[in-house]
Hints:
Order of helices and strands: EEEEEEEEEEHEHHHHHHHHHHH
Strand content: 15-25%
CATH class of the largest domain: Mainly Beta
CATH architecture of the largest domain: Sandwich
CATH topology of the largest domain: Jelly Rolls
Strand order of the largest sheet: 2-3-10-5-7-11
Largest sheet: 6 strands, antiparallel
CATH superfamily of the largest domain: Jelly Rolls
Amino acid sequence: xxxxxxxxxxxxxxxxxxxxxxxxxxxxxxxxxxxxxxxxxxxxxxxxxxxxxxxxxxxxxxxxxxxxxxxxxxxxxxxxxxxxxxxxxxxxxxxxxxxxxxxxxxxxxxxxxxxxxxxxxxxxxxxxxxxxxxxxxxxxxxxxxxxxxxxxxxxxxxxxxxxxxxxxxxxxxxxxxxxxxxxxxxxxxxxxxxxxxxxxxxxxxxxxxxxxxxxxxxxxxxxxxxxxxxxxxxxxxxxxxxxxxxxxxxxxxxxxxxxxxxxxxxxxxxxxxxxxxxxxxxxxxxxxxxxxxxxx
Length: 296
């Protein structure tokens, strides 16, 4: 079974298409038992907002119940689906072949479906927000966010994934990720890996593009983003669970990484509609934009 551009198993609540990009705010409509293996002809991003999602994409758990961004390159062959249709919601961002070729030229993008790092979530939610509050400036904003999301995938190549799968690297990452509140020294990590500290530090940077300290710092930020986008915990509790000294420490780290405060990120991820007056204003702007774009 082959899916054409923009074809997905769901009901489109809102849809926009322009400049080789099609965005759709979706609700799934096909029960899991009725979903069959299928192939997507064109590339697309999928942003999971709510629901239990089953995916064969790289780095995905058996059942995903937290917000994530998935990159599906052209020709993705899978049976991804929702475990249940109850209260599920997702965004699709379809990219035509010309845009995909242009955007990924010379970039080491994955050839298999892949989960993007949590740092992609703020960009994905800004993109979704533009779709909800569409006006005549949204096209420019959406194009910029799509390019940013594709840039997130650069470096997650198959070769990089294979290199980072070395047993000692897996152990080192697990050490950093399982206890983000404690900061080990390079000598300790190297000893656990069975390597000389100098070789360990160089090889870790070669595999991940950063030092172990930067990796841990990024991991804390990613955990905070996931916690803020997918939960309702008090901000101080999120900070503590993610290894930050306090809420202020988390706030500074998020501002540096994604340009948003914890409260701004949480509000963005809730996708709340604007008040009635604002919605009417944006709807009128969208009508004017559509009239400009339509052929005479």
